[in-house]
Design brief:
Number of helices: 12
Helix content: 55-70%
Shape: globular
Number of strands: 2
Order of helices and strands: HHHHHHHHHHHHEE
Distance between the termini: 45 Å
Strand order of the largest sheet: 1-2
């Protein structure tokens, strides 16, 4: 549990020392397993909630598991509980995206425009803008989807953690609008900024360039190589 942020450690101080240590370890395991074993992550998150149901971080962890599984209503419920317990709206982008997942775009946009949005940090506001742009695309509001991402942070060469996602979302918005050249350019910027492989920007760029990417790894158990074709 030593890997936890200071803010989470402060939340755990409301528990007994033994329980705080145990819950902290479960929260670390949720973060560790979220991208590799979602069922195991859920088991740890549910245990953390059983042991510390009034600790916001535990509810957020379970909310993130449901979010990753596409269980939008459950995710939204946990995020709302966490917000009520903590008074913080930093999970607002996830809440808006969950409303989008539930097929409630207007409610999602209302939530994105709520006064709580003004309390978000810069990175959280960028994540919210990315979600809102996606909602605008869903609604066929392609110009609004593009304009909503024309932020001061949309700067070529940025190495901020959110840069690949912002560039990628902007490319998606341009492509939806019909600006293929602009989309190709920004998928390229996203690929250049995405040192950790967070997006498939390189593959999307290859698709737009009409290339076919073939997996050359020899997998004898597979029927054949995986291919990406435009």
């Amino acid at each position: 549990g030593f890997e936890l942020d200071r803010s989470v450690k402060n939340q755990l101080r409301t528990l007994s020392k033994e329980n705080a240590v145990g819950v902290g370890q479960h929260l670390v395991m949720v973060a560790t397993l979220l991208d590799t074993d979602i069922e195991a992550a859920q088991a740890h998150a549910e245990t953390a909630v059983r042991r510390a149901g009034r600790v916001p971080a535990a509810r957020e962890a379970l909310g993130l598991v449901h979010y990753r599984k596409g269980e939008w209503a459950k995710a939204l419920s946990e995020f709302r509980t966490a917000r009520r317990l903590s008074g913080s709206s930093h999970m607002l982008p996830f809440m808006v995206d969950a409303e989008r997942g539930l097929g409630r775009p207007e409610r999602a946009l209302d939530l994105a425009a709520s006064p709580e949005a003004a309390t978000l940090t810069r990175s959280e506001r960028i994540e919210l803008a990315i979600v809102v742009s996606g909602i605008r695309r869903d609604l066929g509001q392609y110009e609004a989807a593009v304009v909503g991402l024309q932020l001061p942070q949309l700067t070529v060469g940025s190495r901020e953690p959110w840069a690949p996602r912002l560039f990628y979302a902007y490319a998606e918005a341009l492509l939806a609008k019909g600006d293929e050249d602009g989309a190709r350019r920004w998928f390229g910027h996203a690929a250049g900024a995405d040192l950790g492989g967070e997006t498939d920007a390189g593959e999307r760029l290859a698709q737009l360039d009409g290339l076919v990417l073939t997996d050359l790894l020899d997998d004898q158990d597979a029927d054949g190589p995986d291919q990406l074709t435009p």
